[in-house]
Amino acid sequence: MTDVTTEPVVTWTAEGPAFLVRLANPPANQLGRSLIDGLSAAISAFEASQARTVIVHSALGGFFAAGADIKYMAAADRAAFEGYGASLRTVFNRIAGLDRPAIAAIEGRALGGGLELALACTMRIGSVSARLGLPEVKLGLIPGGGGTQRLPRLVGRGRALDLMLTGREVAADEALAIGLLDRVTEPGGAVALAVRLAGQLGALSRPALGAVLRCVDDAADLPLADGLTREAARVTDLFDSPDGREGLAAFVAKRPASFA
Predict the structure, then answer these.
(1) Which domains does the chain have, with CATH numbers?
(2) Is 186 a residue of the active site?
(3) Residues 6+ apart with CB under 8 A from 214
(4) What pTM, to 2 d.p., does this model score?
(5) Which of 107, 136, 174, 246 is labelled catalytic?
(6) Which of 7, 47, 82, 116 is flagged as catalytic?
(7) What is the pLDDT of residues 158-217, one digit of tens each?
(8) 246 an active-site residue?
(9) What is the CA radius of gyration of the chain?
(10) How many Å apart are CA 126 and CA 139, to the nearest integer?
């Protein structure tokens, strides 16, 4: 799988607590090999950084990411198709498994694999121009980058079936109403809002944020009793941690907490 490009299609920069990952694979941020590899490198750089939140956004007007590399898929044999799907799932699973929040800042269309990338993030912020959908059924396929599993967990079985069976695009207002988007802002404002949210999260305890992420994952994957057991263990560990001690002491002293 090769992309024709003379510039890096994924670049990144740290801005305080925010780590911005920029996608630029014209014309529509199709998820070809160069973008997948670049996204993986960006996540490795984020993991090695002190930033508290990674923000994935697009440099292209009209598209967050249009989806998988359809031309490559159409020419691939079964083995190549399986390898391509595995590479997509690997990087999406890395994002979903981060110990810090990930935010997708969506302007324009997030379709197919592009929406699956956003679903792997902790939160999704979209402008009023955002359009989201999983249209794979129109190609005789199904979402293969986690969409059939993450979308129902996010919006419920009925709404997920509606979107995947019809392949329709959802506008920003409906996406917000069903929980597919967490915030909606003015056109061009998704990244700025994501950066402000990253600033708020950056003032909080990193271990506590990570524990929230894992406990909520447990809520989707484990029986209630098992999830409650893990919650109890994590909150006890946090109580004995430097951040837990600092947070409690700051509350008693009526001062802002200073977390590591």
Answers:
(1) 10-202 (3.90.226.10), 206-252 (1.10.12)
(2) no
(3) 230, 234
(4) 0.94
(5) 136
(6) 116
(7) 999 999 999 999 999 999 999 999 999 999 999 999 999 999 999 999 999 999 999 999
(8) no
(9) 19
(10) 26
